[in-house]
Design a protein that fits this description.
Layout lengths: L2 E3 L6 E3 L18 H26 L13 H11 L9 H7 L4 H12 L2 H4 L4 H13 L10 H15 L2 H4 L4 H13 L9 H6 L3 H5 L5 H17 L7 H16 L6 H14 L7 H16 L7 H24 L15 H24 L3 H34 L4 H7 L6
Antiparallel strand pairs: 1-2
Helix pairs in contact: 1-6, 4-6, 4-7, 4-9, 6-12, 7-9, 7-15, 9-13, 9-15, 12-13, 13-15, 14-17, 17-18, 18-19
Amino acid sequence: GDARVRGQTGVVSERRGSYPFIDFRLLNNTTLSGEIGTKKKVKRLLSFQRYFHASRLLRGIVPQASLYLLDEDYLGQARHMLSKVGMWDFDIFLFDRLTNGNSLVTLLCHLFNVHGLIHHFQLDMVTLHRFLVMVQEDYHSQNPYHNAVHAADVTQAMHCYLREPKLASFLTPSDIMLGLLAAAAHDVDHPGVNQPFLIKTKHHLASLYQNVSVLENHHWRSTVGMLRESRLLAHLPKEVTQDIEQQLGSLILATDINRQNEFLIRLKSHLDNQDLRLEDAQDRHFMLQIALKCADICNPCRLWDLSKQWSERVCEEFYRQGDLEQKFELEISPLCNQQKDTIPSIQIGFMTYIVEPLFERWAQFTGDTPLSENMLNHLRRNKAKWRSLLHKQHSSSRSNDHSGQVTGSQEQTLNEEETP
């Protein structure tokens, strides 16, 4: 695939390279690249115009002649949602619809303003918006899960965690900006397949990063490239921008699920020894890493309706990879075989071995705040719902084995969205 250099020498946004026999465009039903480029330019222009219109309304300046009469109701609803952006039941899917697919840009502009980052770092609003549009557009909207809406969801969760009293009283503006930027860009340009897939297909990214945190390194380097290209931080001293770039890398690399035990062991040690000193930048940074890890996998801790949507999306992405592996006669990766790996079984395993241990430690750190208790309650209820669905699937499967067919009532059970 082609590659383009962004900003200073050595930072490359490695784009869509592919295994000799596999083109990632097979994952998407896209049209000609020229047409895509044109659509992107139009989308960027429209989102830029939409932002200026929305920002004027947010400041209470009503334009003399509105060009967006059809959007007024949606903007009003989006603005109302932003007033509740710190609530855990925030519906990012609804917010994305209300912002016409610009949830990440709209959310980050708002949060940068809420946290006083624009004033503190003397950021140019137009440049900030341009950078955020670049980030949002570098996500693949064709991915069921790893797309800009996931990034916006993680960012909203990160905002909630940054407000936890145990952490909030120690955070500096730099900590907050790093946390929000890392959340927004942590999966940028994700190809919709996992690291083992890239390694076994000898993808150039796997070679570039020597099979270690391949995707996370790519997300980080792409983010640094966009920061430099946009010149968002160009007015800051060089040593400050270099430090920001390195800390962004440290945060994004922490989201590598292969490093889960490493972080859990370290967190457990800190909590058991009660030796976290949040006055120290190093300890604050570690807790920002933990917060980002929590935000990245918080879907099982959301309301059932939201959690279930995310579960279905991530499994759909797994299954697409499995279909691709089958098509090219590669070994199907774990969790990617739609015939064997059901959504309930995948989710129960994920919750049990990955999510629960991390969020129980997070609750220990925060001191069992209302948010932590709320998340753990959702997690337990959602796990019970998946167990119930798994049981019904097994019952239906056994019945189907005996009868040779699934009855109408069983089919209805399998399709049930809510469980008692």
